[in-house]
């Protein structure tokens, strides 16, 4: 279990590097760090439980049970907090994404991240392609189109024009 949690925490931290322009709040990594810390603690507690079992120590097994119950309570608390604050996180991420989309020019590092995000998640804009119509990039190009990263991979001749929304 500790190895599995360590993998999940490391995966989240590694994935964060691709999307750090969208998550300006550095506390977004806090859950991943907590997961890794819990994994380390679980590994140590597992060793305590194994040693207590081999020695047949009632005190050691009682301590092991108490620690496991504390960890269970902490995990339930984390789940409840995540559930309660999910809308706030969603609103914060959407606001940050909109500000990054405003800075899109097709060349800067934030533009590369936007293109990468849209290609990887097979999406266009924050909610849909119409989010691009309010950006400076859309107005400056004057050709009534969205970036090519909005195009579906199957659409071979996609130009990003809003005349063909089925290709986006």
Automatic annotation (TrEMBL):
Main location: membrane
Stored Gene3D superfamilies: Tetraspanin
Entry-linked InterPro entries: Tetraspanin/Peripherin, Tetraspanin_EC2_sf
UniProt keyword annotation of Membrane present: yes
GO-annotated cellular components: plasma membrane
Assigned keywords, A-Z: Membrane, Transmembrane, Transmembrane helix
Topology versus the membrane: Multi-pass membrane protein
Keyword Cell membrane tagged: no
Signal peptide: none
Transmembrane segment boundaries: 28-54, 61-85
Compartments where found: Membrane
Protein name: TSN36 protein
């Amino acid at each position: 279990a500790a190895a599995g949690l360590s993998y999940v925490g490391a995966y989240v931290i590694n994935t964060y590097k691709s999307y750090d322009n969208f998550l300006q709040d550095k506390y977004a990594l806090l859950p991943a760090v907590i997961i890794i810390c819990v994994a380390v603690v679980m590994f140590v507690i597992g060793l305590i439980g194994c040693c207590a079992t081999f020695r047949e120590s009632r005190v050691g097994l009682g301590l092991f049970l108490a620690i496991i119950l504390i960890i269970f309570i902490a995990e339930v608390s984390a789940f409840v907090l995540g559930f309660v604050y999910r809308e706030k996180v969603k609103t914060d991420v959407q606001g940050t994404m909109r500000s990054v989309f405003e800075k899109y020019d097709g060349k800067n590092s934030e533009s590369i991240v936007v293109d990468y995000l849209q290609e990887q998640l097979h999406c266009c804009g924050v909610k849909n392609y119409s989010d691009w119509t309010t950006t400076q990039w859309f107005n400056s190009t004057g050709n009534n189109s969205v970036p090519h990263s909005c195009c579906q991979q199957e659409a071979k001749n996609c130009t990003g024009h809003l005349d063909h929304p089925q290709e986006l």
